[in-house]
Specification:
By secondary structure, this protein is α/β, with parallel strands linked by helices. Helix content is 52%, strand content 9%. It has helices at 2-6, 11-42, 46-56, 68-97, 103-122, 147-155, 168-173, 192-203, 238-241, 261-283, 291-294, 312-329, 356-367, 380-400, 404-411; strands at residues 183-187, 207-212, 224-228, 246-249, 296-300, 335-341, 373-376. Strands 3-2-1-4-5-6-7 form a 7-stranded parallel sheet, with helices on both faces. Helix 3 (46-56) packs across helix 4. The longest helix has 32 residues, at 11-42. The protein starts with a helix and ends with a helix.
Length: 412
């Protein structure tokens, strides 16, 4: 008791430390925003682009150097200039606001200037982590910019993927995924959501392949190609999938209250097994040095993953698909996005409260911000419950399962 009585809490010190930490974190955030915003402006303002283009001109498609002189020019006219501007701006902010925590941002900016200067004077790429040459071995990361993520800025779309360290500026601007020029194949294209997605993708200058069992229901238009397919004959699409950048698996069936043996087989064949066959076929096309950067799979599992859909077999088959997708994500073959969608008007759900067009726009809005779990629903609980379910399932699978590649290594 005496010891407790003698202990006193210095609230002033605690308040000072918290204030310093808050301003310090804010300064780091500000540094990233300023740095990436300057990068974005370099692609919009001609006189800035003249200097920034030296950076893009220094690299080949495999990120090897065009020449040593081109690399030195890129460091001098872009990296060093960008870092100097960042240091000056953050120093001015720190002097004007007069908060010690803001100097953390200045120190952070100085590290960029130091690294760029070392690369310029020594002519080495060792500290230029996002530009190291060689094949892309992993998928684009979500919050931190890795080589694959930054490669897309150079060779996928120079007017996207602006972020340099953290990707939240791209998430704000909607430049975390470019659809321009991408070949996108979508199953279930004759349905309400399928047609809405086709229309929105074309607006984003994508080349769309509508894959449908009812091709006559799809109206031909510029930029759109229609392919017929049959359930169970997915292998007929194999050749076409080689040319596809993004595969959207959107087809499905709802047997409502039916629980017969045929209904069970039909639900799982359509909602689960055909989707998995398509995923396996598409995954086999992810070859080559830069396929990890450009290939993606989007799967419509719906909010039936976590909430009742008043159709038991629909829920069971979709949850099975969703869980296997979570398992597949562990191998990081490519970016796999889940579409967690609420009820919208369609043949499967005539009483849906959202329109297919609203849902399609919501999907693309979040996809362009590089959301890997795209939730579009009016049910606020889904936004809370699904991330918890997805993380816990992912963690369980990560602990108690292993990839085929890892298993082969152990046997070897």
């Amino acid at each position: 008791m005496r010891l407790a009585e003698n202990l006193t809490i210095d609230w002033v010190l605690i308040k000072t430390c918290l204030q310093f930490a808050t301003w310090g974190f804010g300064s780091l955030l500000l540094a990233e925003i300023l740095r990436d915003s300057y990068h974005a402006l370099c692609h919009q303002i001609n006189w800035l682009a003249k200097w920034h283009n030296k950076h893009h001109a220094a690299y080949r498609r495999d990120l090897s150097l065009v020449s040593q002189q081109a690399y030195l020019d890129s460091q001098l006219y872009h990296d060093i200039v960008e870092s100097v501007i960042l240091v000056v701006l953050l120093t001015i902010v720190a002097l004007v606001v007069q908060q010690w925590g803001l100097w953390l941002g200045v120190i952070y900016a100085v590290t960029f200037l130091y690294s760029a200067s070392v690369r310029y004077f020594q002519g080495t790429v060792d500290t230029d982590y996002n530009h190291l040459p060689g094949p892309l071995e992993t998928v684009p990361s979500v919050w931190f910019v890795n080589r694959t993520y930054h490669w897309r800025h150079h060779f996928d779309d120079v007017n996207a993927y602006y972020s340099g360290v953290f990707s939240f500026v791209d998430k704000i601007l909607g430049t975390g995924l470019s659809l321009k020029g991408k070949t996108v194949a979508i199953t279930g294209a004759s349905g309400a959501l399928g047609q809405a997605l086709v229309a929105e993708l074309l607006k984003h200058h994508a080349k769309v392949i509508a894959v449908s069992t009812n091709p006559d229901k799809i109206q031909l238009q510029p930029g759109l190609k229609v392919l017929y397919w049959e359930l169970g004959n997915e292998e007929n699409l194999q050749e076409s999938l080689k040319k596809v950048d993004i595969l959207i698996i959107n087809h499905g069936v709802n047997v409502y209250s039916d629980r017969t043996t045929d209904a069970i087989k039909n639900s799982y064949q359509v909602n689960t097994f055909s989707a998995l066959r398509l995923i396996d076929m598409f995954s086999a096309t992810i070859t080559g040095p830069d396929a990890k950067a450009t290939k993606e799979i989007w799967v419509n599992t719906s909010e039936a993953e976590v909430f009742p859909a008043l159709s038991p077999l629909y829920e069971l088959s979709k949850r099975t698909l969703g869980n296997i997708i979570t398992l597949n994500r562990l191998d990081k073959v490519c970016v796999i996005r889940k579409l967690i969608l609420g009820p919208f008007k369609s043949q499967l759900n005539p009483s849906g409260v959202m329109s297919a067009t609203q849902v399609a726009r919501g999907i693309l809005f979040l996809a362009k911000r590089d959301s890997r779990n795209i939730i579009v629903t009016i049910n606020p609980l889904v936004y809370l419950v699904f991330p918890i379910k997805e993380f816990s399932t992912w963690l369980y699978y990560r602990i108690f399962s292993k990839s085929v590649i890892a298993g082969n290594r152990e046997q070897g």
